[in-house]
Fold each of these.
Amino acid sequence: MKKLLAALLCTLALVGCFGGPTIDGSSKENFEKSTDAIMETLDADQRAEFSKALKIVAFSSIDFGKVFQGALDGKMPSETMLYKELDGLNAQEVIEKAQQIMDSKKQK
């Protein structure tokens, strides 16, 4: 319970720190440009948290069964799924999404 409260307080504290630019998931190039633009608006700690959150969301969206099957079939899954999932989100929303993913994994 204390960990949940601490996480909630951290999230609330970050609400005022984030906002601003959002991710453009329309293409790989736009995704990279928009995440770079977001990174430029954050301080070092926020950049580290945002970067970590991006990785959590990216890895959680991978269906390894499909990846292995695709490798056997000669087809690899598209990165566009991740781009679409994060399209329109700002840094705070990405971090919240990653926290939800981590919380749901802890409950399993």
Amino acid sequence: MKETSIYVKKLIGIENLNNIKAEEILEQVSTNLYEKSNYQIRDNDIFDNLPIIIKDTILLIDFDTELNMNGILGFLENSTGLYLDDTMEALERIGATEDYEILREIKGIMLRYNLDTKKMRSNVNKGIEHEITNFLRTHGQEYHQMAEEISIAADDLYLYHNERNIFKNLTVYVDLNKDNLINEISK
């Protein structure tokens, strides 16, 4: 846990954890997550050992970033898509059940077409660096209908509905579990 604590400290500053609110923790993580010094945090050896609250926060920030920048298909085929199941579990833990159900539906659509995020990522990795392409060129025309079905399902995600905000859920979750985070880091 010692090495993990170093990464948590880079994200939020352990010495301040007792004195800051959940909103500030989320702000610190979102501000520091994409700093060069934190790139290693997604390495499995590090990420898998992070406190669950920090993992969930990272997963949901990455999910939101990908959705805003590249849409659901970009999320699924990017390295963040490799964490689809973890992202779904994070949504469930924070009480964002509608979005959890939508991702579960999307995963079901992919399974019907015998495609998963690992295969999608592998297809992306076969491309040429800086190549301009699209989903169908990367994965094949046989996935056109699947892409349409996923896009329709994704239209119901929080991003397109002002009455839902996963970051409100996440803030409550972090606030309710902050003592657990402090205890976990202190080990």
Amino acid sequence: MDSITKRLERIEFHQRLLAKMHTMEKVPFYRLVIEKGLTEDEMNEVLDLCEEVNQRFKKQLEEGLVSHTTLLIHFVGMLNVKLAPKETVESLYEQGIFPELMKKLAAIIPADVSTSKFMN
């Protein structure tokens, strides 16, 4: 069970995100963060993961690779367990966070992927 301090920190973080939102439709990733109860650190870990995968993606493009399945496997394997991979990729794309990468991942991610199913 979360301590009261941790819960309060998460609520304050969610309020800061809400203050940035003009409409929920324009910030679907933030909405997802709030719906799934991620902490600020957890959200930052997701964004750091996106940055890492995006760097790998750019390198693969430079090398002429056309299959990016390894990036998807890494992304799904490292994604916070509170988040569904497909929903996360779609919300990141719609919010304009690493759009080229998210478009590529969305194109190769199975519709019913979950972390455990995809990794087995």
